[in-house]
Design the sequence.
């Protein structure tokens, strides 16, 4: 079938590929405006300090400097998604080393950087805390003294340095331990992971003569940018226009505000367009990381493998600002139950401020931390009762007719299908019995992944142009994952138009309908649903006007492939969209526009079936994944080499299987980085490895070439064409699957990420030679 | 005292002139002076490879090349690979195999792959991985990237 | 900042003699990265790119090989001139960074920077190389082992330029190998080891070993080499050499590994280098 005519399910190359491979694609730092200035920031040397005064005289005296901003130029407006705690630039206090305290706009970037270093700031240093334990200690310094007065969207129980304190519980855990034949208990630690999008954060801001601000930036949501800018700058949204050129990767790191307020303040101050692009070092020091977590977990089962109870305490380091932390802590807490039916569960999550770089949204959104602990405990139980870990997972998988969690029942057991497909594809039994070559051990391990797609609201507008082609506007920003293409595929399928007859409107808050963001694995599912609805409305109008033109009843007309409305049962009685749209534009009815807007309306965690405290989302449709990773371990150095990965994902329907594979392969390698290499390290309050020289992400030689994507396609009733999201789940599996493979190969279990050669070797040396 | 250095570069077949400071890198001059913005800045430390360009036939880091030192050299950037609307074999294979996601690393990746195939027209999988080892990509997981280079190699080197 | 583009070594040396705080610009792989990070702002750059006679690899009749200071890593990695006991230098060059870095970086630049985790210092100390240094007044030669004097420190004085590195033919029938352990491929070494061996009927009659990444400079221990000479390179002899080397090392803790870890794996990295070199020596003899 021609992929341009039957686009849903087609392996269509991304529509913007030619731009990207010829160097024509424009990212924020490629944009130039007449009279544009270049900006640079001054960063805080202190982890926690009161700002006493600024002296910008020396900076302003540098030839070529046009303007300087400091906290004095910022208002007290604060922005943020849950607890609004961030001013446009540090004001009153600094709360982490590296925090932007001032910025310079100059004719060129060299001058701006030089001048920024000439701004003198007087600080009064305050005691600082660098871990949740320190922050929770009695008499610990308080990072946000006015926390109780901040806008707190969900009424979270903030107190002291505690930002989030949530619980999801069911059954009676305390009495359930008595029913268990085997109980495993442990403490797990995860590290801060840096997003390492290849494009550092950048923004370009400009103010017109009427005071309207326009901001181009690398982001995941033009609407979150607009909202955050409005809150911190104190401007009405109608005075702020946000746009998104191409985005060089984001992975959660660009869903909330980055450097847009700094560019905006400088543009307002100088009256000139101002562009700022962070250096890689600055990006690593000032943006966000995945939450470091300490997880205490206890899981109990009967000796036949039936899971009975689980108790979880998650403690996350939020860093200096709340950002998406209330959400991440909450989602991690839900996902800590894993993919299993566990009748008795008590899961609690706490997020605590520290004087470190903020932790934020990052692909997986709390899932990787939870799975690191939970999936290892499943294997521990399997080992203790002598059961194959795949069988144990099958036995406890959700299935129709039985409650899974918080009142939710699922229509199918997609997890079981994922498990069976991974079992077959990986030749699980044979590989479980493979031995390594001399000097090396070989093992294979599993991890199951729970995730959702859905969350919050989206909308779409489809306009049929005079010639019958169409414009699709959704406000959804493509971060590189391919949503522009997938959304056009769905619009094309819905309208019966070839793909090249639909154009995707670049996101622009002045013109695009609202989309919360490119996050939570939600664009395909949520924006896709909006598109299907908008297309239905457009088709309805096409039929209405066609009926007037053909003088027949609307019910006798149908949509035909290629952009036609035809008379049912009469093949040659058709009108092309061009004729109908021309009629609508020039004769009667008016231009054909289809719109649809929705808020997530699917299954929710039922508060009457469970204790649900401070969980910040209604949540989404469930999706499952299973990863098996085969590894080799060098006995002498402790190095783990992933050899092959089998990744089965329940995604309803693959709108574009090639793009889906790209998400799986990329997520798996990012997960391998999390498992083996990546760790942001602090020296006191300072990020000690803010460069790609010291912070290593996997390259071609460090990544397995054998990544088998297994697409489990059981159309979801609510999804567009049955589709669910696939953006996040692939990053969750590798770390616990590798840990389980390590245990399988060596009998050694690591509880702390990443699994560096050093940690592996020490564990091997300490372990009795059981294998 | 600062010397301003006049340089002449042949970029994608055309002569360009610029006045540069001694510390200016080729990457800076390409992007911010001559507006060849296809070449990307990812780390400015020579690690990520987003700034890879071909200088006198060999792939180098734009961010580690001092512009003044490039006087008279011949440079190929990502903008210079296609022949009009006809993509190079490497570009075409990257497109067809879906190797491109956010695209930010791609100018450097495609330049590195082009240089690799010039040096080793029929590389093994291992040679492709080694040849691209200095180009970080955070989206793709590299599988489709390596396959694309294999496909380009099977089709010839142009 | 000033920029100089001399075309002769004499011109270059003259500039260096007259400019305080001038830096030679060789390949740029390290210098420019440091300038970009604001770690360094020299008063002048003296480009060596146009200086005639600084690049190239020459094999002399006596078997020694001279590598001009401006020779790129890739050229060294590709050369057929280095074999036997010299081969590890080629092997080390091939493991430096990535293709683009190897096309830029030069042997003179690398050793002048003298990072003990870089590949050349350890390989050159193992291969008993000699570094030729020139300034506006004189020219001198110094053993690689004495060239590296500390962490990022060398025997270079202000005004000096490394002009060449010479690797002697060494012992006939020798085999050599360079082994490196790094966090990810292309990174600087966590631990590296260079080995040159010669065998006679399975018995080691010559050994030179150095390890990198484990101290401020490459470490060579005569007693460790003595453990191998006369042995059949059995595991116990190699392990004993490893123990002696480890005792002489003083690694730091950094992102590439803790001090302890480096010492833990050093004997293994050494053993792997020995085993490779041994196979090569056996093939030669």
Sequence:
């Amino acid at each position: 079938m021609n992929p341009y005519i039957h686009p849903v399910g087609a392996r269509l190359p991304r529509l913007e590929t030619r731009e990207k491979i010829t160097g024509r694609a424009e990212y924020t730092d490629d944009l130039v405006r007449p009279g544009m200035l270049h900006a640079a920031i001054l960063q805080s040397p202190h982890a926690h300090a009161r700002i006493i005064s600024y002296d910008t005289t020396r900076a302003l005296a540098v030839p070529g400097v046009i303007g300087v901003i400091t906290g004095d130029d910022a208002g007290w407006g604060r922005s943020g998604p849950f607890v609004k705690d961030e001013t446009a630039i540090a004001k009153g206090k600094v709360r982490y080393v590296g925090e932007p305290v001032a910025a310079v706009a100059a004719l060129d970037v060299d001058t701006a950087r030089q001048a920024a270093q000439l701004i003198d700031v007087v600080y009064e240093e305050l005691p600082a805390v660098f871990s949740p334990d320190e922050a929770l200690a009695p008499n610990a310094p308080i990072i946000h003294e006015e926390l109780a007065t901040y806008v707190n969207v969900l009424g979270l129980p903030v107190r002291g340095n505690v930002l989030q304190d949530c619980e999801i519980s069911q059954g009676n855990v305390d009495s359930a331990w008595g029913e268990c034949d085997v109980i495993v208990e442990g403490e797990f630690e995860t590290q801060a992971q840096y997003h390492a999008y290849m494009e550092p954060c950048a923004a370009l801001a400009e103010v017109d003569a009427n005071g309207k601000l326009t901001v181009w930036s690398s982001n995941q949501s033009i609407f979150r940018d607009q909202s955050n800018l409005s809150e911190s700058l104190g401007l009405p949204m109608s005075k702020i226009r946000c746009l998104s050129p191409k985005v060089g990767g984001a992975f959660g790191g660009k869903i909330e505000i980055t450097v847009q307020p700094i560019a905006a303040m400088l543009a307002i101050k100088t009256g000139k367009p101002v562009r700022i692009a962070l250096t890689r070092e600055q990006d690593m020091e000032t943006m966000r990381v995945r939450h470091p977590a300490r997880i205490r977990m206890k899981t109990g089962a009967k000796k036949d493998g039936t899971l009975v109870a689980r108790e979880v305490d998650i403690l996350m380091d939020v860093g200096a600002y709340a950002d998406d932390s209330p959400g991440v802590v909450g989602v991690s807490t839900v996902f800590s139950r894993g993919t299993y039916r566990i009748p008795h569960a008590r899961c609690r999550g706490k997020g605590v401020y520290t004087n470190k770089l903020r932790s934020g949204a990052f692909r997986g959104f709390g899932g990787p931390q939870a799975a690191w602990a939970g999936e290892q405990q499943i294997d521990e139980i399997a080992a203790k009762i002598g059961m194959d870990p795949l069988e144990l997972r099958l036995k406890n998988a959700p299935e129709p007719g039985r409650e899974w969690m918080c009142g939710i029942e699922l229509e199918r057991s997609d997890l079981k299908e994922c498990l069976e497909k991974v079992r077959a594809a990986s030749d699980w039994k044979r590989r479980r019995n493979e031995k390594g070559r001399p000097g090396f051990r070989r093992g294979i391990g599993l991890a199951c992944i729970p995730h959702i797609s859905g969350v919050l609201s989206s909308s779409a507008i489809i306009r049929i142009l005079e010639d019958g082609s169409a414009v699709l506007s959704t406000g959804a920003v493509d971060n590189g994952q391919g949503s522009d293409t997938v959304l056009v595929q769905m619009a094309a399928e819905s309208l019966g138009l070839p793909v090249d007859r639909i154009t995707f409107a670049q996101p622009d808050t002045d013109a695009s309908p609202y989309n919360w963001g490119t996050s939570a694995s939600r664009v395909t599912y949520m924006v896709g649903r909006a598109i299907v609805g908008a297309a239905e409305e457009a088709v309805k109008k096409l039929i209405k006007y066609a009926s007037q033109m053909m003088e027949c009843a609307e019910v006798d007309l149908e949509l035909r492939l290629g952009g036609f409305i035809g008379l049912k049962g009469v093949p040659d009685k058709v009108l092309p969209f061009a004729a109908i749209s021309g009629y609508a534009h020039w004769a009667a009815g008016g231009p054909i526009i289809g719109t649809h807007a929705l808020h997530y309306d699917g299954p929710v965690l039922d508060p009457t079936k469970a204790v649900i405290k401070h969980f910040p989302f209604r949540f989404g449709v469930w999706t499952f994944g299973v990863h098996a990773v085969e590894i080799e371990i060098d006995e002498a150095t402790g190095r783990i080499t992933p050899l092959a990965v089998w990744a089965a994902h329940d995604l309803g329907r693959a709108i574009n299987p090639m793009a889906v594979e790209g998400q799986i392969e990329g997520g798996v390698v990012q997960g391998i980085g999390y498992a083996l290499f990546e760790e942001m390290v602090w020296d006191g309050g300072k990020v000690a490895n803010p460069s790609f020289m010291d912070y290593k992400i996997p390259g071609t030689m460090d990544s397995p070439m054998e990544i088998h994507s297994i697409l489990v396609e059981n159309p979801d009733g609510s999804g567009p064409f049955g589709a669910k999201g696939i953006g996040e789940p692939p990053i969750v599996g590798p770390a616990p699957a590798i840990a389980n493979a390590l245990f399988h190969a060596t009998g050694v279990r690591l509880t702390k990420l990443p699994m560096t050669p050093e940690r592996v070797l020490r564990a091997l040396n300490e372990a009795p030679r059981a294998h | 005292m600062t010397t301003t250095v006049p340089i002449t570069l042949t970029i994608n077949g055309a002569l360009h002139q610029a006045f540069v400071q001694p510390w200016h890198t080729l990457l800076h001059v390409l992007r911010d002076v001559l507006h060849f913005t296809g070449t990307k800045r990812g780390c400015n430390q020579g690690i990520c490879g987003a700034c890879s360009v071909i200088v006198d036939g060999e792939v180098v880091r734009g961010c580690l090349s001092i512009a003044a030192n490039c006087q008279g050299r011949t440079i190929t950037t990502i903008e210079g690979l296609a022949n009009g609307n006809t993509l190079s074999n490497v570009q075409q294979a990257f497109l067809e195999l879906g190797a491109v996601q956010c695209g930010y690393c791609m100018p450097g990746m495609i330049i590195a792959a082009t240089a690799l195939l010039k040096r080793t027209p029929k590389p093994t999988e291992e040679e492709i991985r080694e040849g691209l080892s200095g180009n970080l990509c955070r989206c793709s997981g590299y599988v489709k990237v390596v396959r694309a280079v294999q496909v380009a190699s099977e089709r010839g080197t142009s | 900042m000033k920029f100089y583009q001399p075309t002769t070594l004499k011109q270059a040396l003259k500039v260096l003699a007259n400019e305080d705080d001038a830096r030679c610009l060789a390949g740029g792989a390290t210098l420019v990265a440091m300038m970009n990070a604001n770690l360094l702002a020299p008063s002048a750059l003296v480009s060596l790119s146009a200086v005639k006679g600084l690049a190239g690899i020459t094999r002399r009749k006596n078997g020694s090989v001279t590598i001009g200071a401006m020779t790129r890593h890739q050229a060294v990695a590709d050369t057929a001139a280095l074999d036997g006991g010299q081969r590890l230098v080629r092997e080390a060059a091939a493991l430096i960074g990535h293709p683009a870095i190897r096309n830029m970086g030069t042997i003179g630049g690398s050793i002048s920077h003298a990072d003990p985790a870089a590949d050349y210092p350890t390989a050159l100390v193992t291969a008993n190389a000699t570094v030729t240094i020139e300034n506006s007044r004189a020219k001198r030669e110094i053993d690689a082992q004495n060239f590296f004097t500390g962490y990022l420190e060398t025997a270079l004085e202000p005004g000096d330029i490394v002009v060449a590195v010479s690797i002697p033919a060494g012992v006939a029938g020798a085999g050599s190998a360079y082994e490196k352990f790094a966090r990810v491929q292309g990174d600087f070494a966590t631990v590296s080891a260079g080995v040159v061996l010669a065998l006679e009927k399975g018995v080691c009659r010559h050994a030179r070993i150095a390890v990198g990444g484990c101290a401020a400079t490459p470490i060579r221990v005569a007693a460790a080499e003595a453990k191998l000479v006369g042995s059949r390179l059995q595991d116990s002899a190699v392990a004993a050499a490893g123990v002696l080397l480890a005792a002489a090392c003083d690694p730091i803790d950094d992102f590439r590994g803790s001090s302890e870890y480096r010492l833990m794996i050093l004997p293994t990295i050494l053993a792997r280098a020995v085993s490779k070199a041994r196979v090569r020596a056996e093939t030669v003899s």
The mean pLDDT of chain C is 96.
